[in-house]
Design goal:
- The protein has 176 residues and is mainly beta.
- Helices cover 14% and strands 40% of the residues.
- The protein is extended, with a radius of gyration of 27 Å.
Length: 176
């Protein structure tokens, strides 16, 4: 009789373990079926800033900037390839926390819509001041471009004779 209880307890433990492991992995059933004849073709996608994958943006900065100083410049983002793209500015990272900077970005209708001083004109989207931006990606056609107007403002308490660099990271996803 005791052996029967041991076997029953072991079977219950194994059943409970199987049920729990299925819940932990969130395993689900799936099915597949063969479709008709179809051709799948991958697309080509490259996103470029200033015509380069690793663009060194030398004029986005300044000398002897003080708290409250603003640097604003246009950056052309181009999509090269044969597919639509959803993309966004993923992050803006400075190399030094010693120089407090706040950033904003807008998409403008042309390079001239992003003057070195004053507000952007011909704003198509934005402005954004938190990244990733925009929260819903921009979708544009292959072989087209958009102009981003990026602005950096030096924050209060910026010490003298300190420098920083800024890295912009964009994310691009191929769209059907």
């Amino acid at each position: 009789m005791r052996k029967r209880w041991l076997w029953a307890a072991a079977a219950a433990a194994i059943t409970a373990l199987v049920l729990l492991s299925t819940q932990q992995t969130r395993a689900s059933w799936r099915d597949q079926a063969q479709g008709g004849n179809a051709t799948l073709t991958s697309g080509q996608l490259r996103i470029l800033a200033g015509q380069s994958k690793d663009y060194s943006w030398t004029d986005f900065g300044g000398i002897n900037l003080s708290p409250g100083s603003v640097v604003q410049r246009p950056l052309t983002i181009s999509v090269v390839g044969d597919t639509r793209v959803a993309y966004r500015l993923q992050s803006v990272i400075t190399s030094s926390a010693d120089v407090p900077l706040t950033f904003s970005a807008s998409i403008v209708s042309s390079v001239s819509g992003c003057p070195t001083t004053g507000n952007p004109s011909g704003v198509v989207a934005g402005p954004w001041n938190a990244f990733p931006a925009p929260s819903t990606a921009r979708t544009i056609l292959a072989n087209s471009s958009e102009v981003w107007c990026l602005r950096a403002t030096v924050g209060n308490g910026a010490p003298q004779n300190k420098t920083t660099t800024v890295a912009l990271t964009f994310r691009a996803d191929q769209q059907p």
